[in-house]
Amino acid sequence: MKKETKQKYVVAALLIATFLTAIEGTIVSTAMPKIVDDLGGSHLYTWVISVYLLATVISTPIFGKLADLYGRKLMFTIGVIIFLVGSMLSGLSESMQQLVVYRIIQGIGAGALTTIPLTIIGDVFSFEMRAKIQGLISSVWGISGIIGPLVGGFIVDSISWHWIFFMNLPFGIISLILIGTSLHEQIEKKKRTIDYAGIFTFAASMTSFLYALNLWKEERQMTGSIVTLFIVAFIGIILFIWIESKGKEPMLPLALFNIRLIVVSNAVSFLIGFILIAMTFYIPLWVVQGVTGLNATLSGIAMLPLSLTWPIGAMLTGKWMNKIAVGRIALLGIMVLIVGCTGMSFFQADTTLPWMMVITAISGMGFGLSTTLFTVVVQSAVGWNMRGAAMGSMNLFRNLGQTIGIAVSGLWLTDQLKGAELAANLHTVFILLIVLAVIAFVITTMLLGKRGRELSTE
Q: Global pTM?
C-alpha cells in the first residue's frame, strides 16, 4: 500500500473517530427527554451528561500517556472498543441508573478518541500538513454540531432512542479496520512502568473537584460537603504532583511544563474552553429563548455560523503557518475572539437574529484560528515519546476550562430569570468572557517571535 493511500486511510479513521465523539453530546442531549419518559429517573437527567464528561476529562491524559508507552495504534484500538462497549450497553439500558453507569464506560473510551487522533496527526504528517488535517478535524466538529440535533431528533421520532447509541457501532468498526490496516508503528520492546499511583490520585482528585463543581452549580451555595470535596481535590492534586515528580514514567510528565510553548498553549486552551462553553450554552438557551423570546429552532440558526466559520479559520491557519509567525496568527485569533465576546456584551432584548449570527460567525473564526494554532504548536513542540502526554495535557486543560466555565458562569443565572433581569446577568457573564479573552491575548504574546518551522521536532 502506497504511503499516500495509507495516510488517506489514517485520516479517514481519525475523522470517523472524531465524528463519534463530536456528535455524542448534541445527539444524546436531543434524545434525553424521550429517554427520561421511557426509563424514568428524571433526577438523574443531568448525570447522564455529567458522568460522561467526567470520565472523558479523567481518561484523556491517561490515554495520552499510555499511547506514549504502548503506541498509538494499540491504545486507539482499546479506546474505540471501550467506547463501543459503552455505547452498546447504553443502548441496552433498562433504567437510568444503568445508563449512568454505562455512560461512564463510554466516556472513558471517549478520552482516547479525543486525544490519540491528535497525537497520530503529529506522528504521521509533516509540519506543513498538520494544520490542514486539523482543519478537517475542526470541520467534523462543526458539521456534527449542525446535524447532531437533526439526526438525534429523527432517530428518536422515527426509530428509537436506543439507536442513538447503536449507530456508533458500524462507524467505530470501520475506524478500527482503517487504522489497523494503515497505521504501522515500531515500538521498542521493553518493560513498561505504568504510573498506577499517579492515575489513582489524579482520578480521585478530579472526581472530587468536578463533583464539587456540579453540586455547587446545582445548589448555588457553598455547603460544608462541597467545601470538603474541594479540600479533598486540592490535597489530591498536591499529592499527584509529588508522585509525578518522583515517578519513572509519570502519567503527566512535569517536564512538559518546562516548555514555554506547551505552558502557553495549555493556559490559553483553558481560557478558550471556558469562553466556548459559555458562548455555545448561553446564546441559544438564554439569549435567544430567554431574552428575545425566539424559538428553539431559531436558537440553533443563531449558532450555525460558528460551526461554519470555525473550520474556515482552521484552514487559514494551515495556509499561514509557514508564512506568518505563529505568535501573530494566535494573537489574530484571540483578537477576533475578543471582538466576538464584545459584540455579545451589547446583546439586548431587541437584538435581531442576523446580528447574533454575525457575532457567532466572528467568534467561530477566532476559535478556528486560535485552537488550531495551539494544537499544532503542542503537536510540534515535543518528540514522539512525549507527544501523547502533551496532547493529553492540552485536552485536559481545555476540558477543565469548559467544565469550570459552565459551573462558574451558571452561578449568575437561575431558571427563574427572565427578560431584563436575565439580560443584566448575561451581560455580567459576557463581560467576564471579554476579560478572559484579554488575559488569553496577554498570555499569547509569549509566542511572539516564534516561526512555524522553529517548533517542529520531526
A: 0.85
